[in-house]
Specification:
Blueprint lengths: L4 H8 L8 E4 L7 H13 L3 E5 L18 H12 L4 E7 L2 E8 L15 E4 L2 E4 L2 H8 L10 E6 L1 H7 L3 H7 L7 H11 L2 E4 L2 E5 H7 L14 E6 L7 E7 L7 H10 L3 E6 L2 E6 L3 H13 L10 E5 L3 E7 L18 H9 L9 H11 L6 E5 L2 E7 L9 H17 L6 H8 L6 H13 L3 E3 L12 E3 L3
Parallel strand pairs: 1-2, 10-14
Antiparallel strand pairs: 2-4, 3-4, 5-6, 7-9, 8-9, 10-11, 12-13, 14-15, 15-17, 16-17, 18-19
């Protein structure tokens, strides 16, 4: 657990603070109540570090802290007030004293509390967890959501009535069983059904994938997908509001086609052939919708996957906070629903290779569209796709986001990011090298990318890698 000065330097140079890392200047002292609340919130979000004696604004620097001179006492005080065994390290940096509070993650199925409140972080503040979030935590000791029963006490014919069983065989290109008994035997083997006293039980996995109507199952009434189209850039006028209540696996491609068919677009001539171009790439819609459906937090009540189409953008919202930071969607992968992801991979609906977001970024760059934006809002994961916009109309943040995503994508695909690749990304010609250089400089200054230190870089041939690389 010991933190070396070399590791401290890497932490100080991290592009952003996140759920596992926080810096506090605390030159003279730090309010104990605030410390206790932060320890509880960080512990409830997977554990991490609070580092005192370092400024939180980039470029960060060590400023020396005189807070908590008695390390053993503050460790004991945190335990007495929060029931968390933190380990505090005192580092003597050349620029001053630094304290590192190492905070463990909460045990599975339980949460830390302070003064009767189960806390989480929201930006710079701490606040009580929502009831849905607490239910999710306390349910962790239960079987995974996919294995729980959606309904039970059914006859064979009732099972076949509730589930579109032929979809499973169609997607796997297998012959449909000749007898009902054989079909049910396969479904039991897949974990879709269980034999229980009084008949058969359908699991959540089978219901969410193959239900003819998810509202036929008491716990799944809100696990549908909703598609809303608005006239204009706001929500004042709704042109279409449609709900899809069938299982994910039954008609996933048709769902994608429906959304794509409503996108603004038109025809153009390419090499004497008449072609159609839509506002957004179909592959980007497909991958983001698949992610939203597969990785949603099924423990949340009352929320559902929502696709909203405006005349200049599309939002796809999914219940739940992502398990990895949105900045690392391109190179990271963690599935909230492993059994569901595995089944839909076999059915050809998704891949378990962390390639979905890569395909989104690749298709967006090929069309030279603004970079997608991934956000966490009110316990929802929100993905935004934007209609075409000229570079001069993009603000600094949009350019930086596009440059960071471009650099990250090229890094994970073992390609280099250069002034030339940035010009290709934005459709710039050779005379606009300075424009590309300015975008790269801004992204470096924002702490999102850095000059590759392993290469001998001239100004002309400088190469860049993500800040986390």
């Amino acid at each position: 657990m010991a933190t070396s000065l070399e590791e401290l330097a890497k932490l100080i140079n991290a592009p952003t603070e996140d759920r596992s890392l926080e810096f506090k200047k605390a030159e003279q002292q730090l309010d104990r109540t605030k410390l206790f609340r932060r320890c509880v919130a960080i512990g409830n979000e997977g554990g991490g570090r609070i580092i005192l004696g370092v400024t939180d604004a980039r470029p960060r620097r060590v400023v020396d802290t005189k807070a908590f001179p008695n390390i053993a006492k503050i460790e004991a005080d945190v335990f007495a007030n929060c029931k968390i065994r933190v380990v505090v390290e005192e580092l003597q940096h050349p620029d001053g004293r630094v304290l590192v509070f190492n905070i463990p993650s909460r045990p599975a199925g339980s949460a830390f509390e302070f003064e009767g409140q189960y806390l989480m972080r929201v930006g710079e503040e701490t606040q009580p967890m929502s009831a849905d979030r607490l239910r999710t935590i306390f349910a962790e000791s239960r079987p995974p959501w996919e294995y729980r029963l959606a309904t039970d006490g059914l006859t064979r014919s009732e099972v076949v009535k509730l589930l579109k069983t032929d979809a499973y065989y169609d997607l796997l290109e297998l012959p449909y069983p000749t007898t009902q008994a054989k079909l049910l035997e396969v479904f039991v083997g897949e974990g879709f059904l269980r034999e229980v006293p009084g008949g058969l039980a359908i699991t959540n996995l089978a219901a969410i994938c193959f239900a003819n109507n998810v509202r036929d199952f008491d716990g799944l009434q809100f696990k549908y997908q909703r598609f809303v189209i608005y006239d204009g850039p706001g929500k004042l006028v709704t042109r279409l509001d449609r709900t899809e209540t069938r299982g994910i696996a039954i008609d996933f491609e048709q769902r994608v086609d429906e959304v794509y068919s409503h996108l603004p677009g038109g025809e153009f001539i390419d090499s004497a052939l008449r072609k159609e171009r839509r506002m957004l790439p179909r592959v980007a819609i497909r991958e983001l919708l698949a992610n939203a459906l597969i990785h949603q937090d099924f423990e949340q009540n009352g929320n559902h996957v929502l696709v909203e189409l405006f005349d200049n953008r599309m939002l796809i919202s999914s219940p739940g906070v992502p398990l990895i930071d949105t900045e690392r969607f391109i190179d990271g992968y963690r599935s909230r629903n492993e059994k569901l992801a595995d089944l839909l991979r076999r059915l050809g609906i998704c891949e378990r290779l962390s390639s979905g977001i890569d395909k989104v970024i690749t298709s967006v760059e090929a069309a030279q569209l603004p970079a997608p934006d991934f956000r966490v809002q009110n316990d929802l994961t929100v993905s935004l796709l934007f209609a075409a916009k000229p570079l001069e109309a993009m603000d600094r943040g949009e350019r930086i986001r596009a440059c960071y995503q471009h650099c990250s994508l090229r890094y994970v695909t073992q390609l280099v990011t250069t002034n030339q690749s940035i010009r290709d990304r934005f459709g710039l010609d050779k005379s606009q090298m300075e424009t590309a250089s300015r975008i790269l400089r801004d992204t470096v200054e924002a702490g999102r990318i850095k000059i590759d230190p392993t290469k001998v870089n001239s100004m002309k041939y400088r190469e860049y890698i993500p800040a986390w690389a």
